[in-house]
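HOLO CASE FILE
Compound: adenosine monophosphate
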Amino acid sequence: MAAVGPAFSTLSLPPATLANLQQLGYDTMTPIQAASLPIALQGKDLIAQAQTGSGKTAAFALALLAKLNPRWFAVQSLVLCPTRELADQVTVEIRRLARAEENIKVVTLCGGIALRGQRASLEHGAHIVVGTPGRIMDHLERGYLNLESLNTLVLDEADRMLDMGFFDDIATVVKQVPKDRQTLLFSATYPEGIEKLARQFMREPVQIKVAAQQAQGQIEQRFYEVTRANRLETVALLLNHFRPVSTLAFCNTKQQCKDLVTYLQEQGFSALALYGELEQRERDQVLAQFANRSCSVLVATDVASRGLDITQLEAVINVDITPDAEVHVHRIGRTGRAGESGLALSLASMNEMGFVGKIEQYQSRPSVWHKLDELTPTGKGPLLPPMVTLQILGGRKEKIRPGDVLGALTGAEGGVAYSREQIGKIQVTEFCTFVAVGRDVAQAACAKLNAGKIKGKSAKVRLMQGD
Ligand code: AMP
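Model generated. Tokens follow.
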């Protein structure tokens, strides 16, 4: 991430922390870090508006680490997150930032994973706990988790936790932590519930708002006028015309997501939906396939897509215009990252023109309209993703590592030789493993894995065809 703010050395951080930041390549602060760290490091409560990608994790992690005593074996910080994915990301980032100190233990407590292992991790001593509200409550009720020594409470993506109905769970957890703690709340938006959280659980919080990053020059924005009748088919036209490898398509409602995915699948596209009520297991499968480039289009609502960290995204399509101009800027900011160019394509019907006007005002630039009849198929046949995902039954529980899968794929028997491009991401999750392989070798790779062994056991492998 290109951060151009003040240097971290302007903060009162220990030299070891500063050296570690330098090693991580964090030279200067991002805007949210520059605005929040001086306040957080003074021990004040904070409400900060920030989204994924802004560097918000380091903004709270550095503050909680600054107060942490590694020689005191008690949970001193708790970070509440809406989802397991976010909790995992936050844990990774805290561990990286904590490297400056010896032996800081970070434990992740999320649903969908056996309580027993988590309990054991807590018994071995934890300084920092990161987790989802429901599971944290479970541990509290069973007496596995003690928060009496807590000095920092972080509510990460608080708006999303509220969306997911976690208010009561958060309240229950907060009642069990000391009153004189510091509370840091991070949220992309400020729905009403945030104020309620602040009133009930925070002490004179300082509010920080960093202007949303304006669309960068490398994002090309195009608007198309559509009608109710041709909106979904226009998405297909755009995909066939621009042929992006990975596209994130935003809809305003879950129903629209479902309708669009059904339509695109009927048209032969590889498309999957991501919306609020998916089970974690389903969400993991969808995200694995999209991130490893074996699904062309991810159709999502704003809430569901928050926290997604996908770097290579050629296009964003606003299937519905959002009524909130700031959300529009967040949506299109998903593409054109890390210096790559990106396309942001927005469909608007006559009755959405008011929202387009708000977006123009917010971005202080007029929208550029293109005509639908410019959209001509390239004649290259259906748009297919370059990779296909193989799902192997067995994951971390079976102690499978990416190297085991690679070995089974490339082993001498079976007669398939792969080029570098033909084997993509290998992602090991709790119970299964996802492997991306080139479309042209997918059948052969699946057969080879099924015939062979992984970690000494016969493997059970299936091709995931956009399901
Ligand atoms: P986050 O918004 O916390 O998810 O962070 C987004 C990414 O930016 C993460 O990969 C961080 O490791 C990285 N990052 C955070 N702060 C900085 C910084 N000051 N300089 C460079 N990279 C950073």
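CASE NOTES: The chain has 17 helices and 20 strands. The first strand starts at residue 46 and ends at 49.
CLOSED: yes
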